[in-house]
Amino acid sequence: MVRRGTALLALALPVVAMAQPLPQPEAPVRFGILPLGGAFESRNDWDPLLAELSRAIARPVSVLSVNSYEALEQAIQRDEVDVAFLSGKMALDAVTQRRMKVVAQVVRHDGLPGYRALLLTRKTPPFNTKKSLLAEPERWRLARGERQSVSGFIVPQLQFFLPNHIVMETRFLSEIVGTHQTTALAVANNEADVATNNTADFERFKLRFPSEAQRLQVLWESELIPHAQIVVRREYSPELRSRVQAFLVGYGRAKGPRGDAERGVLKSLHDLAGFVAADNSSLQPAAKLAYQLARQNAMTAQWVNDAARQARLQRIESTYAEQVTVLRDLSP
Question: How far apart are the C-alpha atoms of 119 and 121, rounded to whole Å?
């Protein structure tokens, strides 16, 4: 999918959500999956874990697996998702705007508290050096993630492109927008020259597409980004949310054949080691990233006068303060 755009990423104001109908006791718990690879592939990877979750909470669990962040975000806005696996920005919006709560955060086998955003290029010249990219971005074809993607858009924009006076959406010859698998393949197959990606997805890519991965190199990597979260609707009882959390935290921890099978499932899920209990405060780094990017955009954008710029900066500060307050709410 090819897109062009000049819209700036804005911090979304926390809103007072309208009262939502209480979930029916026998209705399926609808689980939304952040797209990693294809929708069908993601669903197959999650099915064994969600079947066990259904038994653990004594409720049917249905799966919503989509091809884009935007489709999942719209489903959440339409209240078609009860539990979801989301990365920082989407989890932040779900908590501050859609009455959801963080119950768990993923852990990977490397033990690091996060992952890193990457820029990938082919190993062969001419489009394979940072110097060339910074000097003439308008000659390069970009493959990037959606605007909600932390490693596919937010962090590269914030930590690499904007500090070098490059706005991703407007400076490149062309752009392809898609999943991390899509962006890596685009560069490997010479459909793009530079791709946003991340360490976790690129490791997965190397296993699934070894020939294509051999053509690629890492041009840049970011600071650590916190791992994704599992969020649950506030309308569910604290008791049910606790059962979901307890299941996730215990999954893959047992010894013997059962534990081995669960660890195998986790490995297929983005090489996860498991889950740890978490609350809304785990989204503080995501809120700070969104705040920093909104501020950077405001500082580099063109304004009719300085008063307009200052008004925008003041709104950004106010929004960030409100988000921090929401994320400190640890009520059941």
Answer: 7
